[in-house]
Amino acid sequence: MNITDRIRRSIRNRAELVFRPADFMPFGSEASVKRALKDLTDLGVLVRLGVGIYAKAKPSIISGKPIPILPIEVLGPQALTKLGIRLKASIQTTEYNSGRSTQIPTGLVVNIGKQRISRKIGFNGKFLQYEHA
Fold first, then answer.
1. How far apart are CA 132 and CA 130, in angstroms?
2. pLDDT score of 107
């Protein structure tokens, strides 16, 4: 069984939805793991959310192309948590939950506090926006 098949089986058996290449380092070298992840992305098992961030995929009902299993509003914060970023509720979410606003938050804005991040996380033109509050 080659490394691509071993990683595919590992992804299928895991409950988590977001992965980094470091999660699969026991299977082989860094180059071989990245090559296997690229192969799995080409096969439609995974989609790439950003540099070194992958998510489980499913075929789109409309186009048949691979899309993430859950929307980026759910997978984005999971990816940031996997990168070690501590998240807080955004200002819009806090105001909505306290009753000061009736504007429903989109979920694409995440509060990362004073931490700095320059990584784009998203899929198909929808990217997370970072708020420093």
1. 7
2. 67
